[in-house]
Write a structure and sequence with these properties.
This protein has one domain. It is globular. A hairpin with a 2-residue loop joins strand 2 and strand 3 (32-36). The protein is of the alpha+beta class and 96 residues long. It is built from 2 helices and 5 strands; from the N terminus they run βββββαα.
Length: 96
């Protein structure tokens, strides 16, 4: 039985299924992930098991630019924008 949620890298656009909100991954603390709404604003904490990659339609409705996968006013997280393929990659949170 799986006890932890999926792993998502910083910068990935996710759907918080409990709040029905799209957010960008800012950080992770154990099983909790910190998300920031498109365009900036107050971050919120969500359980990893309640998160999934946001669909292109969800990203578009939330204001994320469809070509760059980021909103124009969002702050950078790391050196580049994370693509869907990178977001689906194995655990990138391991700093060992």
């Amino acid at each position: 039985m799986r006890t932890t949620g999926p792993e998502f890298p910083r910068g990935a656009w996710l759907m918080d299924t409990r709040r029905e909100k799209v957010g960008q991954v800012m950080d992770r603390n154990g099983q909790n992930v910190w998300l920031r709404p498109p365009g900036g604003g107050r971050e919120w904490e969500a359980r990893a098991e309640a998160l999934r990659l946001a669909t292109p339609e969800e990203r578009h409705r939330s204001g994320v630019h469809p070509l760059t996968k980021r909103r124009f006013r969002v702050s950078w997280v790391g050196p580049s924008v994370v693509t869907e393929e990178e977001a689906a990659a194995p655990d990138l949170w391991d700093n060992s």
